Amino acid sequence: MQPVVTHSDPIAPVVFGVALLLTAALAGRFAARKLGQPTVLGELLMGVLLGNVLYYAGYDLMVILREGPKCAEMVWLALSGHGWGEAAVMVLGGDAGMAFIEIISRPGGSQYLQVSQAVDIFSRYGVIFLLFHVGLDTCVAELRQVGMNSLRVAVIGVLAPFALGLIVGWILTPGASHTQHLFLAATLGATSIGITARVLRDLRQTRAPEARIILGAAVMDDVLGLVMLAIVSGIVVTGSVSVTDTARTILLASMFIGGALLLGPHFLKFIIWVLRRLDVLEAKLFISFAFVMFLAWTANLAGLATIVGAFAAGLLMLDSQFRHWGDPHQHRYSIKELFAPIEAILVPIFFVLMGIQVKLEMFMDWQVIAMALALLAAAIAGKLISGLGLVGKGNRMAVGIGMLPRGEVGLVFASIGKTLNVIDAAMFSAVVLMVVVTTLATPPLLKLTLGQGTEDEETEAELTKRCQ
Amino acid sequence: MQPVVTHSDPIAPVVFGVALLLTAALAGRFAARKLGQPTVLGELLMGVLLGNVLYYAGYDLMVILREGPKCAEMVWLALSGHGWGEAAVMVLGGDAGMAFIEIISRPGGSQYLQVSQAVDIFSRYGVIFLLFHVGLDTCVAELRQVGMNSLRVAVIGVLAPFALGLIVGWILTPGASHTQHLFLAATLGATSIGITARVLRDLRQTRAPEARIILGAAVMDDVLGLVMLAIVSGIVVTGSVSVTDTARTILLASMFIGGALLLGPHFLKFIIWVLRRLDVLEAKLFISFAFVMFLAWTANLAGLATIVGAFAAGLLMLDSQFRHWGDPHQHRYSIKELFAPIEAILVPIFFVLMGIQVKLEMFMDWQVIAMALALLAAAIAGKLISGLGLVGKGNRMAVGIGMLPRGEVGLVFASIGKTLNVIDAAMFSAVVLMVVVTTLATPPLLKLTLGQGTEDEETEAELTKRCQ
Questions:
Q1: Position A468 pLDDT exceeds 60
Q2: Which of B5, B6, B11, B91 to mutate to test the interface with A (most CBs of A within 10 A)?
Q3: Nearest residue in B to A126, CA atom
Q4: How far from chain centre, in Å, is Cα B343?
Q5: Which of A327, B179, B326, B374 is the 20 to 30 A CA-CA neighbour of A348?
């Protein structure tokens, strides 16, 4: 019984690596706030900086992290008996594959793989919590009240960039497959409500008619975008653009969403009743956590992205469901407050990791630059056109501009495309550029077109009341 | 550029598996609370139940999870070019190795490995946050005020079980190495302050002289136990019981602890000053997180366990360090409150996983039963003897009983021993039995010897004041 002695705790390099990434994210947030920019941009750009500078400085961890999900794919290939060399060349191709092999065959090289696996897991959980949060912020009641103007803006705002994106893809990346074109186009449709909402709040314009239309449309866009993602990734997975497959995907997706919306509240009510003897705080946390994960898993079973499930869970969970429970003094923590620390750790890891995966050297190729610029133009034009959905009086330009920022949702789509292998390194870098530019441009442009308002801020209590 | 299509999101099985474990933990907590037992026991025993029942029911995930850290070791061996078969036989031995290979070579089998890796990472983070929490609960000021009685009780309470454990190990497991005996003996020394403190609170006896001595001694025991762990794991890693190596370990450990205690507060002050422009909530969370991880990593560099660093971080972080910061209304979240949701998710995963790793079939062997019972006797006798450290008037028996529960700390030591390969499956199962019995026995015995008191509960405010 001679023990094999491992010389140090395997978690040590992992906690260090993760903490370093978080520190970088914090620095990015800090810089963004100093410059009056959305914090998500700070985290993303800090990732771009870190990833590229340290990569060229020969820092091994970055070589692995910037390959992102490909790394995990390689590990599984290698484990299924292909041998490292073969797996690396299959997934990464010759040069990158050899560089990768060289790193992990050094002593201690496997530590980098461990760090990258932990970072990958954390960032995927981060995305799930991010979409859960978006779902929590969206109220179904409000969706029903969204006016026809918002609906038109939302639909145009998803379809116009999609159509323009398809055209750009077909013209500028003729070598890519149809599924790649479809996915790339779909990433252009998302609207990040978070950034626009913050800008509108800063301008004290949340109750202006244009603002109401933009916010309603952005919420609808989250839903439409997720439906689009469901359809497109269904097509990618089945590998064909056949009508029956698409119909099946839509059917499954509708069944999932219908089932979740119909059965979810009853299921939650039942679980909350079963667990009524527990401490309300821990029960709230556990129930929410388990519910999010269960719906994410079910969504995946139904052929949808896990984030669709997380978003649905966010739609369905309400603090009011817990209101008849125990000591009222314990109710001071809302679901959002309970998840805030978890999100604050996991979500920045996702954004930094996205930044790290942007390969700036891709832009050394004129074709890639052309593609990126055309994509950016399609993304901007498509959303500006959506302003035309506003019928009657109102500033159509302001509405179009308000729909511009892609923020986190566009990134989430792009990362899913990477996992599905339909967004390659060049496309991914182009999408990130598009996200950065549209997000950067929105606040000053919106200020120009809408101007500063004078209204009072909506209080948290009013917001909550509106949603229950 | 033909894409390789993966058919579903790799995170889906992971989130499902983790959520299932958490649900099991919740059920265990619920049952424990109904029976008036510490929740940690509920989680642990639910793990034992789940692990063994599902294992014998042929549930594949349990086959992998109950191997615990060995699984990760195997993956790395396989990745370093040994091939699965060879790696499995090297780490697990013939039969278990073959069963393992069979599972992961089925379609979808690699999902189980992914789940087990994620669970492993989460539970290790859980342990770090657990010890951070213990550190936060320990105040250095109070350590200085601990009386000679507490100090004597603490020292005897660590050394007596250690000596008895060594004897038991030498007699009953003659085949094991010296380092295995040392580590096994060291796991007997820990005292869980959490459980005793709760029982004393329930009995309204926290201000009885015996209670003060027990609590002081238990706090000292955390420190002494970690020092013991540092020395023993140093010996395990260097592989020899030489005086110079032990001296070097002690020197490094003292340098780390001295350095952390001396420089830590200044470092924190500086960082807090640098980041003073950030939102206090997020800064508190990020700084604490990064500080814990940094110290855990440094401790590992110094040849100590990562949890020693996490504990030191907990000692050094005080909410009062942030008091001059920003809006006083934002101060309502303490560091503990910020980490509570993260802990609530990660720590139960650790306990359930520990339970799953208890192989009940080990107790089919008379030799193992004899060893487990002898270990239990050593653990109880050693702590009861520690009551003799009380000089003067007082209930020595009550003090000894108060030192009995091992709770989480004993488990943490055992899990580190598993990672270091010096605690085998039989020893691990025996240690868990010891933890369960000592923790179960303490509350009724303490009630018998101390009786119900009448004092008021110490308020949170008083506790905080005492520690700043």
A1: no
A2: B11
A3: B11
A4: 13
A5: B326
Question: Considering only CB atoms, which chain A residues are within 8 Å of B341?
Answer: 285, 338-339, 341-342
Q: For A28, which residue in chain B has the nearest alpha carbon?
A: B278
* CA distances in angstroms from B324 to A283, B271, B280, listed in the order given: 34, 14, 10
Distance CA B256, CA B299 (A): 7
Same domain, B256 and B405: yes
Token readout for B309 is 């660093």
Q: Tokens for A255, please give them.
A: 């069944």
Helices (H) and strands (E) in chain B, counts: 21, 0
Q: How far is A452 from chain B (nearest CA, A)?
A: 25
A51: nearest Cα among A38, A64, A35: A64
Residue range of the domain that includes A408: 135-343+362-467
CA angle (B227, B231, B235) in 5-degree steps: 165
Tell me whether residues B3 and A83 touch, CB distance under 8 A.
no
Q: How far is B8 from chain A (nearest CA, A)?
A: 7
DSSP state, residue B65 = H
**Which of A95, A121, A147 lies at the terminal end of a domain, its last residue?**
A121
**Which chain B residue's Cα is nearest to A81?**
B83
Q: Which residues of A touch B237 (CB under 8 A)?
A: 5, 7-8
B350 inside domain:
no
Cβ–Cβ under 8 Å, residues B189 and B158:
yes
Which chain A residues are Cβ-neighbours of B83 within 8 angstroms? Answer: 81
Nearest residue in chain B measured CA to CA from A421: B3
* Cα separations in angstroms, A294 against A224, A329, A337: 22, 29, 21
Shortest Cα distance, chain A CAs vs residue B69, angstroms:
10
**Domain shared by B235 and B316, yes or no:** yes
Please report where in the chains the tokens 């060229």 appear, as a residue: A56
Q: Which residues contact B379 (CB under 8 A, 6 or more apart)?
A: B161, B164, B165, B188, B404, B406, B434, B438
> Does B351 map to a domain?
no
* pLDDT tens digits in sequence order for chain B, 468 residues long: 333 334 467 788 889 999 999 999 989 988 888 888 888 888 989 999 999 999 888 888 888 888 877 777 777 777 666 667 777 777 777 777 777 777 777 777 778 888 888 998 999 999 899 889 888 887 777 666 667 888 899 899 989 999 999 999 888 888 888 888 888 888 888 777 777 777 777 777 777 778 888 888 887 887 788 778 777 877 777 666 677 777 777 788 778 878 888 888 898 888 888 877 777 777 888 889 999 999 999 888 877 778 888 888 988 888 777 776 666 565 567 888 889 899 999 999 998 998 898 888 888 888 889 988 999 999 999 999 998 888 878 888 888 998 888 767 788 888 888 888 888 888 888 888 888 888 888 888 888 887 776 665 555 555 555 554
Residue A366 lies in a domain: yes
pLDDT category, A50, cuts 50, 70, 90?
A: very high
**Same structural domain for residues A442 and A319?**
yes
Domain boundary among A53, A87, A121: A121
Nearest-Cα distance to chain A for B57, in Å, is 23
Interface test with chain A among B2, B6, B15, by most A beta carbons within 10 Å: B15
The residue length of chain B stands at: 468
pLDDT digits (tens, 9 = 90+) for A130-169: 889 888 887 776 666 667 888 899 899 989 999 999 999 8
Q: Which of A40, A79, A179 to mutate to test the interface with B (most CBs of B within 10 A)?
A: A79
The rounded distance, in Å, linking the Cα atoms of B400 and B406 is 13
List the Cα angle A417/A419/A422 in 5-degree steps.
40
